[in-house]
Design brief:
By secondary structure, the chain is mainly alpha-helical. It has nine helices and no strands. It has helices spanning 6-27, 34-41, 45-51, 55-78, 83-96, 101-113, 117-143, 153-173, 179-194. Mean pLDDT is 88; it is low at 198-202.
Length: 218
């Protein structure tokens, strides 16, 4: 049997990851079997194990793929003249417009990371890479004078990560949650963090007028 080209191998690997993503989001990590993923991907067990030796390896592949996607969005944001507009685009692409099964999948991975050291390590490394790139982007924008953050960039990056996590969590548990309607307010909050308006100096109180003197009675 002829060996697949590098492009064909990457395509097959991505196809299997798509199948695993669908299965994990639908049934959870523990209820999904490797046989379920084979059926979803329409591949033989031998073909699956050629690329991924375990469900943990599949999770690692999914996390790594998401990491690359998010970092690519940050690179695109850094290339824009308005960093807030760029980060707004990243928020829209990675959170607001993410497929409906994605939030459930990320919650599933997060829950499993609490009990599985291998997955916990994978999640921490991904989170560290994303936070590090975001901090670097903000620090460069600050050095260029494009932003004047009201807090250290590491704190701003942490706030942004918390907001993104919260939006994902809400999308996962609340089918009526309108993430798109809330996104402009999130962007406005981000703009306020990165371009704070100087507080107006307090207005000095006007001196009190002396009390009127009563007329002298004759």
């Amino acid at each position: 049997m002829p060996k697949l080209s590098e492009t064909a191998q990457q395509s097959r690997r991505s196809h299997i990851l798509d199948a695993a993503e669908a299965c994990f989001a639908r049934a959870g990590f523990h209820r999904t079997t490797m046989q379920d993923i084979c059926r979803e991907a329409a591949v033989s067990p031998g073909a699956l194990y050629l690329y991924f030796a375990s469900k943990e390896a599949l999770i690692a592949g999914l996390v790594e793929r998401d990491r690359r996607d998010v970092l690519a969005e940050f690179d695109a944001a850094a290339a824009q003249s308005d960093v807030v507009d760029g980060l707004s685009g990243a928020l829209r692409s990675c959170v607001v417009e993410a497929p409906s099964h994605k939030p459930a999948l990320l919650l599933e991975i997060g829950a499993e990371s609490r009990h599985n050291p291998a997955i916990a390590r994978t999640v921490r490394e991904c989170d560290g890479a994303i936070r590090g790139r975001l901090e670097s982007l903000l620090a460069q924008a600050q050095a260029d004078g494009a932003i004047t953050p009201s807090a250290p960039v590491c704190d701003v990056a942490a706030i942004m990560a918390l907001v993104a996590d919260g939006l994902f969590w809400r999308r996962a548990i609340d089918p009526d949650f309108d993430c798109a309607a809330l996104a402009p307010h999130v962007v406005a909050m981000l703009r306020g963090l990165l371009h704070p308006t100087a507080a107006a100096p307090p207005t000095a109180a006007a001196p009190a007028s002396p009390p009127a003197l009563a007329p002298v009675q004759p």
